[in-house]
Known about the structure:
The protein is mostly helical. It is built from 6 helices and 2 strands; from the N terminus they run H-H-H-E-E-H-H-H. Helix content is 64%, strand content 10%. The two termini are 32 Å apart.
Amino acid sequence: MQLSKSEEELMNILWKLKKAFMKDLLDAYPEPKPATTTVATLLKRMTDKGFVAYKSLGRSREYHPLVKKKDYFSKHVNGLIKNFFNDSPGQFASFFTQETNLSKEELQELKALIDSEIKKK
């Protein structure tokens, strides 16, 4: 299941805070801040989708993510590779290195990462 753009924005805030009350979430938004009802609706949808859970403390709810950011991002990248690059990580890597305007230093860092992964296998 996927998150909408606004849900992803809220999820990024929650990943950063690790756990938060509604006030904390609203405070973390940049201006113009969304309405409390908007954030409450997003939280409800994200809870229904299994991305967020909460603990009731009196009349308040403390929200926390159920999905790790790395896991969510990994699923998206793998879907991108499957859907746009014929399930070929090599095609994705080629596109990524040619189209993202990486500096020579960034390409060398990427090469070092790849060399390190090759040694592990």
